[in-house]
Sequence to fold (529 residues):
Amino acid sequence: MSVAEKVLDQYSSRVYKNRKTHIVEINNNENENQIAANVRTIPGIMTQRGCCYAGCKGVVLGPIKDALQIVHGPIGCSYYAWGTRRHKGKNAEGVDNYLQYSFSTDMQEPDVVFGGEKKLKKAIDEAMELFHPSTIMICSTCPVGLIGDDIHAVAKWAEEKHNIKCIAFSCEGYKGVSQSAGHHIANNQLMKFIIGEGDRKIESKFSVNILGEYNIGGDGWETERILKRIGYEVVSVFTGDSSIEDLKNAHQANLSLVQCHRSINYIAEMIETKYGVPWMKVNFIGVKGTIETLRNIAKYFDNEELTKRTEEVIADELEKIIDDIEYYKTKLKGKTAALYVGGSRSHHYQTLLHDFGVSTVLAGYEFAHRDEYEGREILPFVKEDADSKNIESISVEPDPEKYHLYLQKEVLEKLRDEKLLSYYGGMAKEMEAGTYMVDDLNHFETEEFLKLLKPDIFFSGIKDKFVAQKSGILSRQLHSYDYSGPYSGFRGAVNFARDITMGIYTPAWSFIKAPWKTAPILTGTLGGE
Ligand code: ICS
Fold:
């Protein structure tokens, strides 16, 4: 029996059939690594997924520092989204910063019975009085959708009464099957009400947006530092350490760089369609990934001086870290890892682990779609550029998500031959045959797989880390980086290697035995006496 079969075998036949399609043993034949993803979790299963509200307010909107975000719903929804994601933001002159705060209408039973709009209006009045924000965002959680409060009407009311911008997000937790729906809702509203409104003058010919970068542990700052060193102007970052003013001007950039495709692909697409700003998939995680990305961007701009400067910066950054990298390689080479996060890091971080010779035995996502698992090759150029390179018909493969970047097979092969393709994501590609790719890995499967595969380290989040830790496996959080970071770019790679080396060579958790291993934790008697 394979490892996957041993895990699946414990399910009832109905669950077995369903979960089997979400667990893939990687095969050398790329086309066989197909996985079921982005579908409903079986009720009753202890999933690690989050909700639509988490994806909208927690992920995409959360890091916008000068929008005062009021959560319309019970207090718990707001409390659990308060300060946990570590999207960092600096205070800047003339820009409000509400990142430390948590605003909620604290909905109670009477509001559910009689409607909560009055309370929401009161919360807005109060926020205006105390903070004078220029932008308010309203995010609703489950009960609001169920009782039908019209938060969009309240937003309009607030705009007129207070002369501010007020945007409502109907991101009730139950919508969709995971956080993913929330990303989409946030993307749509940002596009509708913010992007395109700015008229800041952009000086540089080499101006970029960084999309899908939320500045967790300072990642966005490190990426920006490298880009600025080369000579790029960073117009906006979606949405790490961002201000409304920056986001308004995103349409003025020459190119959008997409780090986390899953959460922001909709905006990347819409900015391209509406304003003609093309986007390119990048990866600033890992030394190799960063170098490849910087070269791809330079290739896009096709400017001699910029290309030269890119190579200079790469050489200089490398020189500064190379000794550390070599040292950590000797410490980490041959170790094995399991990764389980949301929808983009499990493949990006595999590239970083490979830099140090760490291989992956299992990797999974909570809510990724099939592209993040199976990968797609994409054109790192705009369509027009491809045309100018004499590639005839670039037609779109029928795809549920209708990305124009999915190409027909013959075209793909031609582009591949001409080395015009950059790879986009794709977990399967990073993995060796015989390892496991799992979608919506649940609590039970986590325990079982870890027992059978025994990785040296398990990268996950706060919900799933303790079981691993208590069973003696080193755990590092890949969502929040625990208290560390940045992990992006050249310096980030060293931080990352230092953290996991420290963990692996301080095996504190393997010295303890979980109490339930030696003694029963429940006692009782059967019968009447
Ligand atoms: Fe993208 Mo946690 Fe990002 Fe990704 Fe997304 Fe979330 Fe975080 Fe995780 C995210 S946007 S919050 S890279 S910053 S929803 S770590 S998909 S689950 S892997």
Observations:
- The radius of gyration is 24 Å.
- Residues 380-407 have pLDDT under 50 and may be disordered.
